[in-house]
Amino acid sequence: MVIGDIERKLRLQNFEYSAPVTVKEAIDLLAGDNCGARILAGGTDLIVQLRQGHLSTDRVVDIKRLPDCNKLSYDPSEGLILGAAVPCHRIYGDETIVKTYPGLIDAAAIIGGIQIQGRATVGGNLCNSSPSADTIPILIAYRAECEIAGPTGTRKVPVEDFCTAPGKNILQKGEILLALHLPSVAKSSGAHYLRFIPRFEMDIAVVGAGAYVELDEEGRSFKKARIGLAAVAPTPLFAREAGDLLQGKEVSEASIDAAALAAQSIARPISDMRAPAEYRKHLVKVLTKRALWGAVRRARGEFVPNAVQENGR
Amino acid sequence: MSRKLYVNTTINGEEIEFLCEPRQSLLEVLRDDLEMTGTKEGCNDGNCGACNVIMDGVLMNSCLVLAAEAQNRNISTIEGLATPQGLHPLQQKFLENASLQCGVCTPGFLMAAKSLLDHNPDPTEHEVRHWLAGNLCRCTGYDKIVRAVCDAADVVKETA
Ligand SMILES: Cc1cc2nc3c(=O)[nH]c(=O)nc-3n(C[C@H](O)[C@H](O)[C@H](O)COP(=O)(O)OP(=O)(O)OC[C@H]3O[C@@H](n4cnc5c(N)ncnc54)[C@H](O)[C@@H]3O)c2cc1C
Ligand code: FES
Ligand code: FES
After folding, report:
1. What is the spatial distance between Cα A87 and Cα A105, in angstroms, rounded to a whole number?
2. Widest CA span of chain A, in angstroms?
3. Is B124 within 8 Å of chain A by CB?
4. CA–CA dist B63, A170 (Å, integer)
5. What is the CATH superfamily name and number for domain A189-300?
6. For A78, A148, A230, B126, which has the most beta carbons within 10 A of its beta carbon?
7. Which is higher by pLDDT, A141 or B2?
8. CA distance A186 to B3
9. Which CATH number fits domain B89-159: 1.10.3720.10, 1.10.150.120, 2.102.10.10, 3.20.20.140?
């Protein structure tokens, strides 16, 4: 490497920085003629990609001062409002959320290391729209919706309809993800996300699977199940049929195996440096099973620890 | 070049003002403009933790923070770890355990360990290893670092 290359790695290109305090101001900045504006949440994807030269920009719009993006509130009838600028550590630092949305914690507590979780947001994880993003499968499983504001007003879009290709999503010019809305969870319900990585920490999912289940009062049969998958297709996948198969079924190895097979059948993974496609195909089945069993155990009131509880954080 | 931004912030308890380019990271401003070179640059992409600082009580990689974001924040860097009374127990135990060789990773490990002890004054070895997973060291093989953090935790507990 020559000195010039090293300097390029060091320096980010020139851009303007704005930290608007109203959504309107933010939209105006993003929709204005400087069409190269980009949103900054935690910056753990954006700054890396700008530095690597994968992205360029002439204005960075920091959304961390927008009150709408900093909301983190739970109401038993309304569910959870998770502002797009809320970093992971705030999510797993909130006891109510840890208790109510354990599947979300499974994902938020494994993104990078502690110092990444001090900055990284779930909104940024979704908007970066990587097929391997850890929070997207569980957002899908929880039936989360995106609240999006733009020049022509606001709209709501289910998370499973958000990503369109690796790094691409449905956001139009000038649009901002303000918050994610997770519906309230039923009484006998549970959720679990897990991924396979060849290390203990600090790696990108080879495959990830998230499940949300609702059981009958005795915890014996499924009332409902939703499954989301990561890193097995160009976008995160909603394994709708796999979840629907479980509706009304008894909780058993057989019913869960059948759902895992259905999830496996829609996976169309690629081979890359992390794993060959065949291995990913195998993993989808294994991880879907484990995610479902983890969700079932939590629905039955059993303790299934997340990364925070396992590691004394 | 974009117009410079005025930033007013607190670093290690001292109010500091600086001008920065919007594109500058906090790491760059600390090292190049404020001459606080204790915070190190390893990878510059969030993977090594050499650049760790604590901002408003939260551990983060200063290479992934824009300097402009430091406005009205409270930042702790390695320069603030020792006091006029002496080294922080973490620093002392790093010395006693020979937990560094080249030393480039050390400030980052110390800040990460500081934030661990702030959150969890009595960590197990497993918990120390987990908390430090975002820090890389190319020299020591980690064991001596982990031992030093466990030893320092004992000291901090006793003096608390
Ligand atoms: C060392 C390291 C380890 C990592 N480990 C993991 C991991 O284990 N799992 C994982 O999934 N990811 C991982 N990542 C990637 C990254 O940390 C996550 O994707 C993170 O959640 C991104 O959030 P952010 O707030 O930092 O996003 P940013 O970088 O701020 O934004 C990401 C993208 O989304 C856009 N954006 C952000 N917010 C909005 C919004 N509200 N509206 C519209 N667009 C928006 C930005 O313009 C940008 O393009 C890792 C990154 C690093 C550097
Ligand atoms: S220099 Fe910031 S993480 Fe490596
Ligand atoms: S002492 Fe050299 S990198 Fe850790």
Report:
1. 12
2. 67
3. yes
4. 30
5. CO dehydrogenase flavoprotein, C-terminal domain (3.30.390.50)
6. A230
7. A141
8. 53
9. 1.10.150.120
The answer to whether domain A3-62 has CATH 3.30.43.10 is yes
Question: What residue type is assigned to position A33 of the chain?
Answer: D
Give the amino acid at A116.
Answer: I
What is the share, in percent, of chain A residues with pLDDT greater than 90?
90
Distant-in-sequence, close-in-space partners of B103: CB < 8 Å, separation ≥ 6: none
For domain A67-184, which architecture applies? 2-Layer Sandwich (3.30)
Output the six-digit token pair for A175: 């649009």
Alpha-carbon distance of A147 to A177, in angstroms, equals 6
What pLDDT is stored for residue A220 in this prediction?
Answer: 97
Q: What is the CATH code of the structural domain delimited by B5-80? A: 3.10.20.30
Residue B99: what are its φ and ψ, rounded to 5°? -85, 10
Q: From the CA of B112, how far away is ligand 3's center (Å)?
A: 15
Reduced to 3 states (helix: H, G, I; strand: E, B; else coil), residue A309 is helix
Strands of the sheet containing B58-61, edge to edge, are B14-20, B5-11, B74-76, B52-55, B58-61
Residue with tokens 């790695």: A9
Which residue has a Cα nearest atom 25 of ligand 1?
A42
Mutate to test the pocket of ligand 1, among A38, A46, A86, A204 (most ligand atoms within 8 A of CB): A46
Which residues have CB under 8 Å from B108's CB, separation 6+? B39, B40, B42, B48, B49, B50, B51, B52, B135
d(CA A82, CA B102): 43
Amino acid A1: pLDDT: 47
Domain spans, chain B: 5-80, 89-159
In this prediction the pTM is 0.97
